[in-house]
Amino acid sequence: MADMMKRVPVAEQEPKVRAKNFEEVCLGYTEKEAMEEAVRCLNCRNPKCVVGCPVSIQINEFIHEVKEGNFEKAAEVIARSSALPAVCGRVCPQETQCEGVCIRGIKGEPVAIGKLERFVADWAREHGFQAAQAGEPNGKKVAVIGAGPAGLTCAGDLAKLGYDVTIFEAFHEPGGVLQYGIPEFRLPKTKVVGPEIENVKKLGVKILTNVFVGRSITVDELLNEEGFDAVFLGTGAGLPKFMNIPGESANGVFSANEFLTRNNLMKAYLPESDTPMRAGKKVVVVGGGNVAMDAARTALRLGAEVHVVYRRSEEELPARKEEVHHAKEEGIIFDLLQNPIEILVDENDWVTGVKIVKMELGEPDASGRRRPIEIPDSEYVMDCDTVIMSLGTSPNPLISSTTKGLDTDRRGCIIAKEENGETTKTAVYAGGDAVTGAATVILAMGAGKAAAKGIHEFLSKK
User: Distance between CA atoms of 86 and 90, rounded to whole angstroms?
Assistant: First the structure.
């Protein structure tokens, strides 16, 4: 009899092995393991896990079906709420959402909801099972700008309601951050991202790539000339932020966005790549979020010694605990309570090191976290040849600047109602990082769902 207080362990690649390849770290549950883990679910009458899920998956229902071995039914339950279950099962911060409120977790370990969702989605893909179906055509057209998590989710939900949906994507591959931001070893592109996007296309959604809305065509032209009844903006937040310290424009300084995009979308990590990436021998990654972990672990796999420099303590690290744990296992070095103040360069403007000041934590700031304060006379130099800045991102202003009547806030984020994605421009809706600034995949998906509902309500009245 399994210990009901503890999770069924999930297999992973050994740290020393995976640190040298880009294959997926977590190997997932077998059918037997998934059913054993599902038995741990209490099938609560008032399932708090469902409330904790941004896309409201009926978690208790799908886990019950897994427990009974009804994997097709489990997939159907998930498909009612999520267009990207194999993605969510891998990259969602379940520990702060569904699993964070799991009743089983009060006295023991919470049910491994994310790993079970991943199992069901993988099982459906491997067995060729298409859970979601398109709705009866209703004769109305919707344009979705951006093929990231928000756009794909909005498009999928609208297709299931019978809308004729076309996604316009600026890059040459759809997927947004799923394709260019999250590394292969966390989210395989061919095995997982591609099939999830194909499932959305099977609902009748059309995806046009290499279309830069705001340049190739405008939002107003889509509404007034191309016959679309509504537009959803899911353009993400792709502009990187920097510290504005001396030396930041030197050769060998990357934004995490550029570093990961070149490695993921352009396959720069492959020896035969047309755009190989210079990772350097010693890399300093500045920041402590999930993107910083992704950049650090990617640089490690490219052969570098990698240091993560973060101005707060480990307790304040915003990255998922699982990602920090994996990074440490693989050999990433964490230099905490430290902050760069200058990037040092040679006569050819190449990075030679980083001047760093040590920090201590003071009183909490507006975010509720204790504010880091410099310790006087604590500066030192860390030698390195590459610096990756992972300090967050903001939305590209192209669409907002070319769309009359579309208001943004002081950060450049599109102003939209949280409950339905409605913007200040009639028939235009928005959601995801373009509205909130950089956040998580699942929150973007939740915004895409809300906007699809808002668009449906709006067009149903016309």
Answer: 7
CA distance 186 to 260: 13
Mean pLDDT of the chain: 95
DSSP 129-177: -----PPPP-S-EEEEE--SHHHHHHHHHHHHTT-EEEEE-SSSSS-TH
Please report the pLDDT score of residue 2 as a whole number.
62
Q: What is the rounded distance in angstroms from the CA atom of residue 170 to the CA atom of residue 208?
A: 9
Closest CA to 179 of 189, 170, 169: 189
Q: Give the span between the Cα atoms of 330 and 326, in whole angstroms.
A: 6
- pLDDT for residue 11: 96
- Report pTM: 0.94
> From CA 174, how far away is CA 168, in angstroms rounded?
9
Residue type, 264: N
Distances from the Cα of 79 to the Cα of 10, 58, 92, 153, 238, angstroms = 24, 10, 16, 11, 29
Q: Residue 275: its pLDDT value, please?
A: 80
How many other C-beta atoms lie within 10 A of the C-beta of residue 19? 20
Distance, in Å, from the CA atom of 373 to the CA atom of 357, rounded to the nearest integer, reads 10
Tell me how far apart the alpha carbons of residues 162 and 272 are, in angstroms, rounded to a whole number.
44
Burial profile 267-296: b = 16 or more Cβ within 10 angstroms, e = fewer: bbbeeeeeebbebbebbbbbbbbbbbbbbb
Residue labelled with tokens 């047309």: 274
CA end-to-end distance (rounded Å), the chain: 59
Q: What span, in angstroms and rounded, lies between the C-alpha atoms of 202 and 120?
A: 19
CB atoms within 10 A of CB 461: 6
191 touches 22 (CB < 8 A) = no
Q: Return phi, psi of residue 60, to 5°.
A: -60, -35
